[in-house]
Amino acid sequence: MKEKYIKKFVEKQDELKKLVYLQNTFLVEEIKLVAGVDLAYWVKDKKEYGTCSIVVIDYNTKEIVEQVDYFDEITVPYISGFLAFRELPLILKTVKKLKTKPDIYMFDGNGYLHYRHMGIATHASFYLNKPTIGIAKSYLKIENVDFIMPENLKGAHTDIVINNDVYGRCLRTRENVKPIFVSCGNWIDLDTATELTLHFIEKDSRLPITTRYADLATHQSRKRVLGDK
């Protein structure tokens, strides 16, 4: 059954991949609002559901400006490498609930660091029309290439290079914590994506507060929907 999806999904990814632009289309000093995006899933009565949370944060004060959630049934099956096709419908419906207009979106997931450079951060950019960044907690191994562990210093990083192409960056956001994996989504360069990620790191987490707060919000949203205490 999944085979019927794969051909169509690959064609769409190949079409969009040609349009990816890994340079800044904005000035960092003009950034005002940055959104974190994450999703959570569950199964009930043999149906799969998902909830998307978007948390918008003021770039300068780092205060939460807005939070919205949306849940619905998931109809696209999970297929490795094509997660965006499952998540995008929920994300776009959640974005419609926003009253603010984020300048940049940061996703709990990958962007250019993907088999066909089409992780959720990159794929979603074409529908959001905004620069995007992928923030992954675990490493997506591509073509059997391992990442190189950076020094145990805040801001230390090593680039993930596959076939002479820089896919992303292994970044140590704090001392004595596991690194995270940053990749461009679209319309941003890797150094700026790294800079923005570090800007939102606080002392109690290795993750930027953008995607960290979004992750926490998805769990709260799921509990509300399921009626859990």
Automatic annotation (TrEMBL):
It catalyses: Endonucleolytic cleavage at apurinic or apyrimidinic sites to products with a 5'-phosphate. The keyword Hydrolase applies. Gene3D superfamilies: archaeoglobus fulgidus dsm 4304 superfamily. It is found in: Cytoplasm. DNA repair enzyme involved in the repair of deaminated bases. Selectively cleaves double-stranded DNA at the second phosphodiester bond 3' to a deoxyinosine leaving behind the intact lesion on the nicked DNA. Its EC number is 3.1.21.7. GO terms for molecular function: deoxyribonuclease V activity. Mg(2+) binds at residues 38, 108. Its cofactor is Mg(2+). This is Endonuclease V. The keyword Coiled coil does not apply. The record marks 78 as: Interaction with target DNA. The gene is nfi. It comes from Sporosarcina psychrophila (Bacillus psychrophilus). Its main location: cytoplasm. InterPro entries: Endonuclease-V. Keywords: Cytoplasm, DNA damage, DNA repair, Endonuclease, Hydrolase, Magnesium, Metal-binding, Nuclease. It comes from the Bacteria. Pfam families: Endonuclease_5 (PF04493). Transmembrane segments: none annotated. Belongs to the endonuclease V family.
